[in-house]
Amino acid sequence: METQYKGHTKALAAAGLIVTTAIWGSAFVVMKNSLDVLPPTWLIAARFTVASAIMAAVFFRRIRTMDRETFVCGVKIGLMLGVAYLFQTYGLKYTTASKNAFITTLYVIIVPFLHGFLNRKWPGGVNIAAALLAVAGLALLSLQGDLSVNFGDLLTLICGVSFAFQVVYIDRYTEKHDPILLSVIQIMVTAVMGWCLAPFLDGAFPAAAFTDRSLIFGLCYMALFSTTICFILQNVGQKYLSADTSSILLSLESVFGAVFSVIFLHDEMTGRMIAGCALMFLAVILSETDPAKIGKLFAGKNASRQ
Description:
Layout: H1 2-34, H2 40-58, H3 60-64, H4 68-91, H5 97-104, H6 107-119, H7 125-142, H8 151-173, H9 179-202, H10 213-240, H11 243-250, H12 253-264, H13 271-287, H14 291-305
């Protein structure tokens, strides 16, 4: 009965991460329009500030009971998240959107080894195979044309490494600490980083932003769905899933991003992109496959041949 309960919990956690990637994928469309009005760092500051206000109002009682250790852990993953978003945004200024998306989601192959090094939980062969499949799918989905390395690619790589650290440390900290409180603190820290850096990176806040209805709608959507709901689902989901599995599930953001771009921005869905999506879904299935069952399957085949 307990095994069945754990199975249901893991399934719900995985579903939560998939919902998260679907929302993040849809946010590409919203963010594209918002960046036409508000510079990148100001957008990060505004988005995470609104999300912080929502979470502070909803979880006020929980926040009052937070201990110092939970606060410190939340600050650490908040700094990782803030660094990732900043380097992703500024990497995009110097490289193509497709390469930016691909390099960012390389955390899917970094996480298993970083997780092993930091938490002494080394990946199995199935996890590595699933991660490699996901990277191959991402390459088909994202990479086109020029494959040379430029300054923007290096900035984006820092973003991918920072996301990898965030995933691994969420896995570590949610073992002992409330994932909701960790979500609240990391979002607030990212907001503070945005406000501190925006004047230096993007200049003065554009006054026209206050009157742009599409921006206000976009901010509300990103703050409520892409930030508040998604980071809660990620932190809670990672409490019940391994960091390796979580990173592969989270990489589906690229798949949903491509799908929503086709639907709302009328981008073309090529055969190569479809193949990339198929490989990524295969990676997800493989990541959730029990290695012991695979061993028994092959053992049974060998036995039948003797």
